[in-house]
Specification:
Elements: E1 3-10, H1 15-28, E2 35-39, E3 42-49, E4 52-59, E5 64-70, H2 73-80, E6 85-88, H3 103-113, E7 129-132, E8 141-148, E9 153-160, E10 163-170, E11 174-176
Antiparallel strand pairs: 1-5, 1-6, 2-5, 3-4, 7-8, 7-11, 8-9, 9-10
Length: about 180
């Protein structure tokens, strides 16, 4: 199962309470393997009142929290029945699963909040030889033809049956020779 970010609608003003309640429910119901992070998207702004400026934290999407989770019947039930939650955004009718946020939407929200996704350190270079560590091409040696930093992937050409075959792999699936 794949983990994705979902938008959850809450009663306005209850975003932090929903976050706290949901985190407690995840722990008490042993759902740590299905529900990972609950965020109330906020940003810091400078407000000027009576000639004085002060920093305030404002909710980016009042009435909403975002949840990183693997969508199963159980995880859906835990989130849906958390006090203060009115439902998932992007579900079209009863019984249908909600639509996850697109990776670029999540990236934009996290960047706006100053929270960056953990990134793998890369020290690969184009045309460098690497060995595939895992997956169907494990132990094959190939040449890096493309590095996609944003997706954390490399395109490696491996020699299979006398032919160069392009293979897209995660950074973590290859190692330097």
């Amino acid at each position: 199962m794949e983990k994705n970010w979902y938008v959850v609608h809450t009663y306005s003003g209850y975003e932090n309470k929903v976050k706290t309640n949901l985190e407690k429910r995840v722990e008490s119901m042993n759902m740590e393997d299905k529900i990972f992070r609950v965020l109330v998207p906020v940003e810091e702004e400078t407000e000027v009142k009576n000639g004085k400026s002060k920093s305030v934290v404002k909710k980016v999407f009042p009435g909403y929290v975002i949840v990183e989770m693997v969508m199963t019947d159980d995880s859906w039930y835990v989130v849906r029945n958390t006090p203060g939650v009115t439902g998932f955004v992007g579900s079209s009718g009863a019984g249908s699963k909600p639509t996850p946020l697109l990776p670029e939407e999540v990236e934009a929200i996290l960047r706006q909040m100053g929270v960056e996704e953990p990134r793998a350190e890369i020290d690969f270079e184009l045309k460098e030889s690497v060995k595939v560590k895992e997956g169907p091409f494990a132990n094959f040696v190939g040449t890096i033809e493309e590095i996609q930093v944003d997706k954390q992937k490399v395109k490696v050409h491996v020699n299979m049956f006398g032919r160069e075959t392009p293979v897209e792999l995660e950074f973590t699936q290859v190692e330097k020779l």
